[in-house]
Each structure stands twice: as C-alpha cells, then as structure tokens.
Amino acid sequence: MDLEYGPEYDVFRKQVRAFIEAHSHLAPPSSDRAARPSSKAVEWQKLLIEHGYTARTIPQAYGGYGAEPDILQSRIIAEEFARARVPGGLSNQGISMFVPTLLELGTEEQKRRWIEPTLKGDVVWCQGYSEPGAGSDLANLKTSAHIENDEFVVNGQKIWTSTAKQADMIFCLVRTEPDAPKHGGISYLIFSMDTPGIEVRPLKTMTGHAEFNEVFFTDVRVPMHQIVGQRGQGWFVANATLGHERGMLGDPDALENRLEALIALMQEERLGQGRAIDNPVLRDRLVALQAEVAAMKYNGMRILSNSLRGEPGGMAKLIVKLQSCELAHQISALAIDAMGELGILYHHSPREREGGAWQWNYMFQLGLIIGGGTAQIQKNIIAERGLEMPREPKLAKISDAAKATADMPRHKQGSA
Amino acid sequence: MDFGLSQDQQMLRDAVARCLADTCPLDHVRECTERDNPLSDKVLRAVQDLGIPGMLVPEEHGGLGMTLLDAAIVAEQLAYAVAPVPFLASHVLTPIALSEAGSKEQKAHWLPKIVSGEARIGVAISETIEVRDGAGVSFAAGKLNGTALFALDFEGADAFIVADSGGRLHLVGAKASGLKAIALTTIDRTRSVGELRFDGAEAEPLADDGGAAVGRLRAAGRVILAADSLGAGQAMIEKAVDYAGQREQFGRLIGSFQAVKHMCAEMAARHEPCHSLVWYAAHAFDAVPTEASLVACHAKSHTGEVHRFVARTSTEVHGGMGFTDLIGLHYWFKRIGFDRQVLGGPETVRAEAAALQGWIKAA
C-alpha cells in the first residue's frame, strides 16, 4: 500500500497548483455549463489546452497538447482543479465520446477536420444512439439509411438526445444493411444538424425541464464519406467508446462533492431547536452514506492502481456505474428528508432551498440510474462477465418455450 | 502509487489460504463446533507454524513487527475458512495493547510467550463502547471490581486485558482469585466469548494514558472484524454463484434466471468496494493516524450492513438447502452476524463516527 505519487509527481502537482492560482480569475463560473460554451468558457478551454490541462494526450496535429499518456498526471490535474473548485476543461459528448472514437477509428482527414474545433468548443455534437424501440437492446435500432445517388438517405427517430438543440453535428447509428444480422447492419454516420429533414423536439422529463430531445429524420441526405469505420461496422465503432460514458457516470470525486454539500446542508438547516444533523436518525443515515462514499473512493483508487499496472479493472470497475448512481440518488434522497416539508419546494417557490437543486438531482439521478445502461443491464453484466454466471437462454429457445407454455392449461404454468 | 496488497501481502494471503484449505475443511469445523470446546488444536498449530501469533509483536520481542493490514489479510482468510481458532484478541489486540501501553516488564514477560504460543490473552473492552445489563469494571487499590461482558478469545486464555470504566487497561490472570470467568454461548461456535466477574481481583494496570490505548484497540478490533466479515462474505458469494451454476429447475440452471443472477450481482456490487475500504482502514491504522479511528468505524459499520445483506441473500440463492445444516452455509452466516454486533453494531459505531467529526457531543 503506497499512496504517495512520488517526487516527480509532487513537482507536477505544484505546477498545476501554481497555474490555477495564477489564472483562476480567467475561469468561467462553475454554473456556466451551457451546451454551447460561452466566449469566456472557450477562452478558458484554449488556455487549458495550451498548458496541457485538458486534451492533454491528444496529438498537437489535432489541436491537443500532445503529451504522452500518464494516468497519474491526469489524476493530479483532476484533483487540483476539483480542490480549487475551478472548472477544468470542457466536458461534453463530442469531447468525451466522439473525439476518442475518431482517434481510434477515424480517417486522417476526419481527425484533422473535426477534433480541433470540437476540443475548442467551436463545434458542438450530439449523440444519436437510443431510439424508442432500442434502449437496453440498442442494436435493435431501426433508423435506416439507404443509398440513393451516392448519398445516405436517413429516416427514423432518435431519443434521449441531449444538446440536440444546440448541436452543430450529430454522430449517429443507423441501419444501412437491413438484411444483415442485428449487430452487423449498423453504420456510424456524422452529419450536420442543419441538414434539411431534421426536426428536434424537446423531451420534457419528470424534472419539469427538457434535458433531452427527440430527433426525427425525414429523408436526411448525408454524403457517403461522412461515415466512421466501414459500412456495417457501426456497432463495433460505437462500442469502442461506450465505456467512456459509463466512466463519466461513476466519478468518485463527484460523489464526495455531493456528500460535502449534504453535510453542509444538514449543518445549516434548522430543525426545531437544533439542526438537521442533530436528529439522530438523519445523522445515522448521513454517516452510513459517508462510509459508502469512502468505500467508492478507495475502490476508485484501486481501479487507478490496476490501470497503472496495466491490469484490467475487473469487478472493481464493473460495479462502479450501478453503485455510484444509486449512491448519488440516496444522497439526494437524504437531503430532501433532512429538509422535511421544505423538501417538497420546487419551481422557484418561496422558501425553496438551493434553487430546488436537491429535488432536481433526486429526479434526474433516477434518470441516470436508468440511462447509460440500466441498473438491470448493469447487474446482468456484473453477473455474466464478473461472476461468469450462465447467460440467458437464446431468444429462439425462449419463444419455443413460450409457445409450449401457451398451449398448456393455465394452472400448470411454471414460474421461476 | 500502489493502492492494494503488496506482493509480500499477496503471498501471505495465499499461504494462509493454502494452509487453511489443508487443515480446516468444513468437516473439521463441524467436528470441532459440535464439541464442548470448539477450538481446533490442529488449526491453531498450523497458524502457529505460519508465525501468525507474532505478526504484530515488535521484532525486539521476537515478533515479526508486521502491520494491521497484514493482520487483516489473515483475518479475511480465517473467516473464509470459518476457522475455529483465537485471533482477534489474542494475536491482534493483545500485542497492540502491550506494545502501546505495557510496561517494560509486561512486554518482556508476555510478548515472547505470545510469539511462541505459550500464552494467550483475551481482551474485554466492550463496556468502553456500550454498557449492557449494568456491566462495568472499576479499579481501585490494585483491584478490579464489577463485570466485563464479551471477553474475546475467552476459551483457554491465560490472562485477560480488561478496560475499566475510565478506559484504562489492566492485565489480570485467568486464575486470579476474585475472578469468576463464565463462558457465553453465541450464534458463532467458531469463536469464544465469556463474561468476567471481578470481586476484588488483583490486576496489573497498563499505562494511564487517558484512554488512548483502548481507543487504538477499538479501531484495530473494528478493522479486523470488518476484514473477517469481508472473508466470510466472499465465501458466501462464491458459494451462491457456484450453487446457482449447478442447480437446475424448470430445465435451466437457476443462475440463468435474472431473478437469481441479479441477487448475485447485487451481492458482488455491494461487497466489492468493501475490500478497498477495509484495506485502507487497516493501512490508516499504522500510516494515517488522523483518519484511523473514523475510517475504522466506516469499515466496521459498512461491512456489517453489506454482509448482513450478503448472508441472507446467499442463503436465499441456495433455496431450502441454504437453510439446512447439510451444506453448512450457516457457519458463515453466523460469523457475519458476530462480526456485525461485536465492538459496536452499525448504529453504535456510526454514532461514534459522528462524534469523532464533532457532529455530536461524545456520550
């Protein structure tokens, strides 16, 4: 057990800290998280790239800083910006999902065309994966692209498309080979959101806000070269980066920040003669969550060490999305409970606390438990890949069995 | 930066695991726990041969001078094998108590005997955590009076280290006049617990350190119980997964049903981060003194909650078989139950964690 990063990293940490101290007055406020970055956020992003504090390992030829990958340096940068409560580099689906995909599987021309403006916040992307009939079973997607006059012609519908309203471009999974097996007929297209035939409808959620959209395609014409990977390889292309999304949803620093906010709330919020934290039942729940956040923090350090040794993350990594999303939800739930009747206030009500953020979080985090691979899909993955448990029988066998049971008298049907 | 077990620690883990797989199969555990005195001399000798009694004894007294993380690794394996041998009090808490608060003479007298296995000392500090049935021990004029409940590693102890109500530790011979030692029967036959009734029993005090040493014993004890819970939980998850991969119903392996698969996934998902929490808590005991007591509380309370869930869920995955004595799953179930309650159940330990952070006034 060695928790020191070593002297050369201590020097690096001092450099990062000195940079933040000298430049933090240029940073946009943390609340500035619009999909289309403000000019201040764009300038900050450019400064961070110049110093290697974001886009650190992306080659200079594509607008990055061009450093050799170093997990601990990246970790130190994240830690120091979080500690100073200064926003780090831009984080959006273009940067987190599309850029890594292009780096891995894009053509040289695509990399030169798209990576730099994406990193610099000039081009905003949205992701067109999920469809009404393709959620957990993403490969069941039906949006089609047939070829006409050397162009793809896209028809269909996407859902859960965040930032579609603001996006310049979309990276989108479509079915180009309708007769191929489910996973084999998909292609990964990129096209402008200004192309004729695209309609974006905001998707209002239980929070009262439209954090997502539905996107409808009617004869949307896409030039043949705007494809990443080969035709029919889209499933493979998309899977190359799905792991990045699950990683984004399980950040232990974010959990620690939520817990600290909860502790502050419970110390400030008055309850009768005392504070919320003086109530033994609420306090007991708080300490239980604190223990669980600590467990996830050290689990994160274990995953970091595994990757430093070049070992796979194993079970420690497989459980992160399921556990972190659940834990974040429980933190918000306790905040609402600690507020008692005040916990119901929302929509800018008088006496509302923190702009209704805890209620919004409580609802939105339920969305995160469902999105990015539902809790139930995560449990399948943990059981089948992590514990090597037997898979579900193939679909054909189930439908045979279903036919057989349908013919049986009702009272004889078995159940698991 | 390397979070996890060192190569030496992995070798230690594997050596203990191999030794217990050989000497302590479930049939042996069953045979021992059906006797009046369930301690296994055979496993105790094997543990002795591995040098485990001297792990935490400083080198100057003939021990190995190892860390609490090393001891936690051993605890995990002992629980995995449900080994009916003394460990927590005799091989962990006693060396720490004597090293940190023992006089020169006490150390010189006892520590080499602990290393060699000639002497075993039980520990009774429960009343510094929570008083039940009006128990409590007072010390005056060199004599102890009152009752100490839940003396750990009770059976066969040559002496006991006992905390008085002021938190000072005392050494008292098991055969001292004025001491009546009464065995308590618990759910978990693999570990022994007793009650000490003092009526003017002569005792040797350890250092008057304002409760510092007993605080260290609480922290170390909680980490070791958490590690024990981790090993027992690991065994129960593995057994559930194995069983679900063999048992067929409705023409399918039951492990292919999502209802069963998800029970196993939930156990694994909640259990896995406990490894890192326990390792860090053990590491902090020696290396991060400012965090040690708090993170020991977290490890104890959190593993208590997680493994209660694992214990009942693994039993359910085994169906009716899990409920029988035939496959012996209940040995681990009971070990987890013991680990949860001893040295403070989760609620008690969380209240202490809150007090440590200034969130409540200490009781």
TrEMBL record, chain A:
Keywords noted in UniProt: FAD, Flavoprotein, Oxidoreductase
A GO MF label: oxidoreductase activity, acting on the CH-CH group of donors
Domain Acyl-CoA dehydrogenase/oxidase C-terminal residue range list: 232-386
Ranges where the Acyl-CoA dehydrogenase/oxidase N-terminal domain occurs: 8-122
Key word Hydrolase present: no
Required cofactor names: FAD
Any one GO CC term of the record: plasma membrane
InterPro entries: Acyl-CoA_Oxase/DH_mid-dom, Acyl-CoA_Oxase/DH_mid-dom_sf, AcylCo_DH-like_C, AcylCo_DH/oxidase_C, AcylCoA_DH/ox_N, AcylCoA_DH/ox_N_sf, AcylCoA_DH/oxidase_NM_dom_sf, Mycobact_Acyl-CoA_DH
Ranges of residues in domain Acyl-CoA oxidase/dehydrogenase middle: 126-220
Pfam families: Acyl-CoA_dh_1, Acyl-CoA_dh_M, Acyl-CoA_dh_N
Domain of life: Bacteria
Assigned protein family: Belongs to the acyl-CoA dehydrogenase family.
PANTHER family, per the entry: ACYL-COA DEHYDROGENASE, ACYL-COA DEHYDROGENASE FADE29
Protein name: Acyl-CoA dehydrogenase
Organism: Hyphomonas pacifica
Automatic annotation (TrEMBL), chain B:
Boundaries of every Acyl-CoA dehydrogenase/oxidase C-terminal domain copy: 219-341
Cross-referenced InterPro entries: AcylCo_DH-like_C, AcylCo_DH/oxidase_C, AcylCoA_DH/ox_N, AcylCoA_DH/ox_N_sf, AcylCoA_DH/oxidase_NM_dom_sf
Known cofactor(s): FAD
GO molecular function, one term: acyl-CoA dehydrogenase activity
Keywords: FAD, Flavoprotein, Oxidoreductase
Pfam (any one): Acyl-CoA_dh_1
Domain spans labelled Acyl-CoA dehydrogenase/oxidase N-terminal: 6-118
Family affiliation: Belongs to the acyl-CoA dehydrogenase family.
Protein name: Acyl-CoA dehydrogenase
